Structure formats: structure tokens, C-alpha cells
Amino acid sequence: MLKHLKIIFFSIIAISSIQKVAADITVNELIFSTDKPFHLKILEALPNNAKIVHGPIEAENTIIEFMDYFCGYCKKIHPELLQIVDERDDVRVIFLQHPILSESSNTLARIVLAANLQNKGFALHDSIFSISGSITQNKLEQSIDEIGIDKVQLNIDMGRPDINKMIQLSSFLAGGAGARGTPTFFINEEFIGGFVPKQQIISLLK
């Protein structure tokens, strides 16, 4: 618990300033309550639309990744995370936005969360990390078209204030938890900053 004390500062700012998008959890519950593991309380602090989820909702094992779409190591670990979920029925992966590398990172985060409002967030998230080479406007538009995302609605939703607030809250929680970059993971209750080999992830699952 001590290593997460900085969450006090970040959570007070984030949850008080982003009340309208945060889930029903108080700062006191997030920091001091011992009724459930810390990583699960992070998830409770975020609205469902802020989470890109792959795997069974009630899975025994939870992997949380704070990520950036322009992070090379996030892209490298992505297929391995999906493999773990596909190989087991007791694991879920939850991808949380932490766009810290550029303004383009923030733009992609907004696009994916806007797509999430159409229940196509994971499909676009996966497609972006599956793009060969650099991410370009043409490649992104091709992914959007192939997935069948309503572009008009996507553009409208990208401008919603709560989309930006969800990203802000997610990044506040990442920083408060101790993230110094991307990727940053919670593998169940184990906090790990940086790239993690697939076998190490598996070794930390129940």
C-alpha cells in the first residue's frame, strides 16, 4: 500500500475535478479501504466507457495495461496479451489510456474511446496496434472503415467533454499508481513498470 501513497494527491484532483465521469467510488474508498485489491479499485474509479476490455468480465485474473498507441513496447506486447486471453478462459485484459508521448497519442486515445461508445473500441484498439509500420491517417481511416464505425457519430463523440475527462482521469490514476511511462501493468495485484515477457505475465496469474 505504501508504494501507492501518491495516489492520494492524484485521486483527489482527478475524482474531484472529473466527478461527472468517475464511477461511484470515493477518494477515501480508493485510498484507504481494504475491502478489495488496489488494482480493482482503480477500475471502479473509471467509467465503463474508459476501459477497453478483452476477455470474460468476471475472470479470476485481471491484467491492466496503461498504454499509449505510439509506444513501441505497447505494440510489441499487444499480441502476447491477446494470446494469453485466447489460451485461457480465466483472464481478462483491460487497456487504459495513458497518452503521454505526443498530442497524436491523445488524439488516438479520443478516437478509440469514441469508438468504444459504439461498442467497437476493442476492435479499433486491436487494429491500431496491428498496423504494419507507422500509423498514418490513411491506415487509420482504413481500419475505421473495415470495422464499420459510424464516422459521423465518431467525430461527434470525439468532441464530447467526457471523452477528454476520461482520458485525464485514467492518466491521473496511472501517475498516482506509480507509472513512469508506458506500458505499465497491474497483473492482478503485482505492479510492473515497463515491458513484461509473456511467460513472466503467465507466472503471475493464479
Question: What topology does this entry show?
Answer:
Blueprint: H1 7-17, H2 27-32, H3 38-44, E1 51-54, E2 61-67, H4 72-87, E3 91-97, H5 103-116, H6 121-129, H7 137-147, H8 151-158, H9 161-177, E4 184-187, E5 190-193, H10 198-203
Parallel strand pairs: 2-3
Antiparallel strand pairs: 1-3, 2-4, 4-5
Principal-axis shape: globular
Strand residues, percent: 5-15%
Number of domains: 1
Spans where pLDDT lies below 50 across 5 or more residues: 1-17
Percent range of helical residues: 40-55%
Query: How would a textbook summarize the main sheet?
Result: 5 strands, mixed
Q: Helical element count?
A: 10
SSE order, one letter for each helix or strand: HHHEEHEHHHHHEEH
Please identify the structural class as seen in this structure: alpha+beta
Strands in their spatial order, largest beta sheet: 1-3-2-4-5
Got a strand count? 5
Oligomeric composition of the shown chains: single chain
Mean pLDDT: 89
Radius of gyration, taken over Cα atoms and rounded to an integer in Å: 16 Å
CATH architecture: 3-Layer(aba) Sandwich
End-to-end CA span: 21 Å
Q: Superfamily at the CATH H level?
A: Glutaredoxin
Q: What does this entry show, briefly?
A:
Helices cover 51% and strands 13% of the residues. The protein is built from 10 helices and 5 strands.
Structure description:
With 206 residues, this protein is α+β, with helices and mostly antiparallel strands. The protein has one domain (2-203): Glutaredoxin (3-Layer(aba) Sandwich). The chain contains 10 helices and 5 strands, in the order αααββαβαααααββα. The chain has helices at 7-17, 27-32, 38-44, 72-87, 103-116, 121-129, 137-147, 151-158, 161-177, 198-203; strands spanning 51-54, 61-67, 91-97, 184-187, 190-193. Strands 1-3-2-4-5 form a 5-stranded mixed sheet, sandwiched between helices. A hairpin with a 2-residue loop joins strand 4 (184-187) and strand 5. The longest helix is centred in the C-terminal third of the chain and has 17 residues, at 161-177. The chain is globular and about 45 Å long. The chain starts with 6 loop residues before the first helix and ends with a helix. The model is unreliable at 1-17 (pLDDT under 50).
